[in-house]
Structure formats: C-alpha cells, structure tokens
Amino acid sequence: MDFSEWPKIELHLHLDCSLGFAVVNEFEPGITTADFQHRFTAPLKCQNLSDFLSRVEDSIQLLQTERALTAATLDLLAQLQSDNVIYAEIRFAPLLHTQQGLAAAEVVEIVSDALEKGINQTGVQAGLILCTLRNYSAGQSMETVQLVHRFRHRRVVGFDIAGDELAENPQIHEAAYAFARQHGIPCTAHAGEARGPESIWETLRYFQPQRIGHGVRCVEDPALVDYLVKNRIHLEVCPTSNVQTNVFATLADHTIDKLYRAGISLGINTDGRTMENVTLSEEYRRLHDCFGWGPGHFLRCNLDAVDAAFASEETKAGLREALFA
Ligand code: ADE
Ligand code: ZN
Q1: What is the pTM of this model?
Q2: Which residues are paired to 188 by β-bridges?
Q3: Is residue 20 lining ligand 1, measured as CB closer than 6 Å?
Q4: 314 is an active site residue
C-alpha cells in the first residue's frame, strides 16, 4: 500500500533530527553520502536513548547560524510537503543553538521567520514547540518557557521537555511548567521512553502536560492506561524511533496496537526524518505490514492528533475537513 498520498498530521518532530542531505551539503560541500550517514543519521539500533542522543551532536553543531537554521527549516517544510503532511508541530531547543553567538531569542526569531516562509512556499500548516532539556537547570527551563510566551504571536504554539529521561531531579522543571499553565501555554513532555510507567506518572504529576511524547510503556500499568484514557492525555507515538532507541527489540514488540485498542488518544510520528531515516508514509506502511493497520486506524490516529494539536479550533476544523476529503 502506498501511503504517500494520504493527508497526515505530525505532532512530534525534531528540527535537529531532520537535516536533509542537500542542507548539509550546502554547508559541507563535497560531503559523501557515507559520511553524511555516519554523522547525521543514527544506526537502526542504538544501545539506548543516551546512545542515540549522543549522535545528534554534529547536527546541532551545524545549526548555529542564521543561514543554517533557515535552510534546515525550509528544507523540512519541503520534506513534509512531499510526505503529504498537512499540519506539523516542529520542535527544537533554542538554547542549544547559541554556541556561535546567536541569542536564544534570535534563534526563535530565525526559525519562526523561516517557518512562515516555508508555510507560504509549501501550503503545509505548522507551528513550533520550544523544548527545554531534562539535564538543563531550572533557570534554563524558565528561560525557554518564557521564550514560548514571548513568541506566541510568531507561530510558537507550545512547550516540551526533551533530552535524557534518566536525568535526575525532574522537579526542578516544575516551575517552568507552572509558568506555562499560568500563561495558558499548551504543554507536552517526553516520558516513558528510557523509563517505564513510574516516569510517566512522575511527569504527569510534576508537569501536568496535555500530551506525552512517547509514553509507550504505559501498558505495563493498567491504572496508568485508565488514567490516560479518562483524562484524554494524547500520546505522540514514534514507532521507528522507539525501536531505534531500544525501547522495543522490534516493531512487532511495539505496544502501539495495544494502546490503540485500549482507547488511548494517540498519533503516529517520525520523531525525526534523518536521524531515524524514515518518513511518515513509511511509518504507516510498517504499521500496516506489522499490525494490519488500515484506513480506519490511520484516520482515527490523525483525528486524535487534530484534537490534541496546539492549534485554534478554526484550524482544527479545516484539518478535519481535509482528512475526510
Ligand atoms: N531529542 C531528539 N530525539 C529525542 C528523543 N527520542 N527523546 C528525547 N529527546 C530527544
Ligand atoms: Zn522526541
């Protein structure tokens, strides 16, 4: 089955994990495809999340200038267009891109301007989510969420925490999430990826996000599944990424079909298109081949994602129409 023509929603996608070859080649002319693969993609199987994250370093190093951030954002919008993604939320951690003198606010302005341009060029609708990282300080998390507040009129739609889930003291980011709630900023949080249900409970308790990035090990705790269903907490599921970071040995071991059947709100995402070496159409094909998923499954996932999107009701109504067209 060819899923490339199907309209799709993607809520969980990292800018720094999605650098196309053409973009890298622009900044490192003559780079070979083998070198590109070695430095800008990760193996299909990493030891764990920390191993995977250590491999994003070259991409971050490249994304330190206005030119590179702009080129990467425009290229990602073009990738989304050819994958028939009609609405995307693209995330990045602004504080990671200040190593060559850009201020964090300038980074957000640059990506926001490029996004605006990319939306106009491609017709893909999109918003930005700003990430703090698990290993950041309370101050860095607060700085990041304040950037969300400051740039909400510039297509910044939400706040996230990414990075290594094994980092200690999640409580230190509580104040940033409280700031988000006080200012009506929609929130998501990576959890239940490198750790199990206890990490998801902790994340729900401390951060109270509307969505969870991954959360796929919740099935180990029926009370947690119940809680997610009752509170309509949406899971941003990234199947290929979860196999790559070794949450599951193979796709057949993935819990997505169980989560779906339990009635949890969930969507399908790539997490990144280059580091994970996958498109969203390919994710759909793999779910079709592995679990027998068909149009009904994908439509429900996309409608769940629209409900959970950090977008206006007007935008959501338009997206639902496009999904049914
Ligand atoms: N940053 C990029 N990919 C990530 C992932 N899978 N989990 C946490 N942080 C990330
Ligand atoms: Zn992620």
Answers
A1: 0.98
A2: 211
A3: no
A4: no
Task: At 321, list the tokens.
Answer: 């129409």
| Mutational test site, ligand 1, from 47, 51, 53, max ligand atoms within 8 Å of CB | 53
Residue-level pLDDT at 36: 98
Does the beta carbon of 234 sit less than 6 angstroms from any atom of ligand 1?
no
CATH number of 8-309: 3.20.20.140
Backbone dihedral angles phi then psi of residue 208, each to the nearest 5 degrees: 50, 50
Choose the catalytic residue: 165, 193, 236, 283.
Answer: 193
**pLDDT tens digits, 224-273:** 999 999 999 999 999 999 999 999 999 999 999 999 999 999 999 999 99
Is any atom of ligand 1 closer than 6 Å to the C-beta of 190?
yes
End-to-end CA distance of the chain: 19
Reading the block at residue 56, the tokens are 């994003």
Spatial distance between the Cα atoms of 306 and 288, rounded to a whole number of angstroms: 21
The single-letter code of the amino acid at 9 is I
Domain-wise residue ranges, the chain: 8-309
3-state secondary structure 281-310: HHHHHHHHHHHCCCHHHHHHHHHHHHHHCC
Tell whether ligand 1 has an atom less than 6 A from the beta carbon of residue 241: yes
